[in-house]
Amino acid sequence: MREDWIQPILDEAKLQGLERTARVCPEAGGIIKIDGKEVLNFSSNDYLDLARHPHVIDRSRQALDQFGIGSTASRLVTGTLPIHEELEARIAKEKGYEAALVFGSGYMANAGTIPILAGRDDFIFADKLVHASMIDACKLSGAKLVRFAHNDVQAVEKRLEQYSDHAGRKLVITESVFSMDGDIAPLTEIAETAEKHGAMLMVDEAHSTGTFGPNGAGLIREHELESNVTVSMGTMSKAMAGYGGFVACSEKLRQLLVHSARAFIYTTAPPPAVIGAALGALDVFEASPRLGYILQANADYFRSLLHEAGLDTLQSQSQIIPIVIGNNEKAVAISQLLRSEGIIAAAIRPPTVPAGSARLRISITLAHLVDDLERAAKAIINAVKDT
Ligand SMILES: Cc1ncc(COP(=O)(O)O)c(C=O)c1O
């Protein structure tokens, strides 16, 4: 009786072609086995194929053996183990910042950090397409949220000018590689504009960590913008193939986050095995600094096959390649047809993407060889034409 409000919501979602289920995938990674058959998985964020990398697993196992299963307390109590500080020092060095702080997830890194940078009397200027975790963090902060047109530097400028007379801190937030469009923000120009207006800049590098820049350090590092970007946020859950999030920043800001970021303080410290895996992934980035370049060359090739057949991949310039279908049901039908042919290409629908832009979101990973890319491109082109 008290739950009679639930079914109408679920029915409405189904009617709109927006029903969501957490489907079981028997394995993680870019190439998996389902019912004994090899399946190409283009919906995994394991971009560098590290989820089963022997060194990453070894490092994780060593940490497990040394420290046990859990950190057993929050960071400010007794949950900070030497391995947490080792990882933070390593991230700071790789990202080119004074300091870094690890959080339980990328979502928590955004939820913990943004409300510290901006509060009730302040302003946050956010790209129209930033990730839900950034938007939720903005809401949590209580700051006035102002959106600007996607990747549009003039729109950033206009918005900052519009609020130039207002007192209060100003924070611009964007992503370097956008999670659903795979395009790249004009970081240098946005940094210049933010600086001109005395605003801080925070960049979410969830999808460019490991996949761009020297040793996979990301696009802030590639463009030498460390001193212009107040916070470089990243995750250990995509190219690092594990779990967890982090921010790289000044030592002073780190101190403030330790002192007051609720998503850092009021939760148990990430488990040792997860931290060990992240250290292992950073070892691989350092030992094989060209992995990101190879990934991007493969993504370029895949995109060129789709373009030759007239498919639109928006402004994608990364390993994330959207194929916009538009209609929700059609996107799901194409995804299901591909699945029957041994190809996983998840249909992404609103509200994750704007209404009318349902799409297949393709993630190229290093598990996919040239033959796999060619087979998948052919199947996708046929499925889009025939559906
Ligand atoms: C751009 C972006 N930021 C943050 C997150 C959250 O990271 P995590 O999955 O580690 O919580 C994700 C993905 O989930 C993302 O795509």
TrEMBL record:
Catalyzed reactions per annotation: 6-carboxyhexanoyl-[ACP] + L-alanine + H(+) = (8S)-8-amino-7-oxononanoate + holo-[ACP] + CO2
GO biological process terms, semicolon-separated: biotin biosynthetic process
Entry superkingdom: Bacteria
Swiss-Prot/TrEMBL cofactor(s): pyridoxal 5'-phosphate
Record PTM N6-(pyridoxal phosphate)lysine, positions in chain: K238
Keywords annotated in UniProt: Biotin biosynthesis, Pyridoxal phosphate, Transferase
Molecular function GO labels: 8-amino-7-oxononanoate synthase activity; pyridoxal phosphate binding
EC identifiers of the protein: 2.3.1.47
Domain Aminotransferase class I/classII large stretches: 38-380
The protein's annotated pathway: Cofactor biosynthesis; biotin biosynthesis
Assembly behavior: Homodimer.
NCBIfam families: bioF (TIGR00858)
Summary of the function given for this chain in its UniProt record: Catalyzes the decarboxylative condensation of pimeloyl-[acyl-carrier protein] and L-alanine to produce 8-amino-7-oxononanoate (AON), [acyl-carrier protein], and carbon dioxide.
Family: Belongs to the class-II pyridoxal-phosphate-dependent aminotransferase family. BioF subfamily.
Protein's name according to its UniProt entry: 8-amino-7-ketopelargonate synthase
Gene that produces this protein: bioF
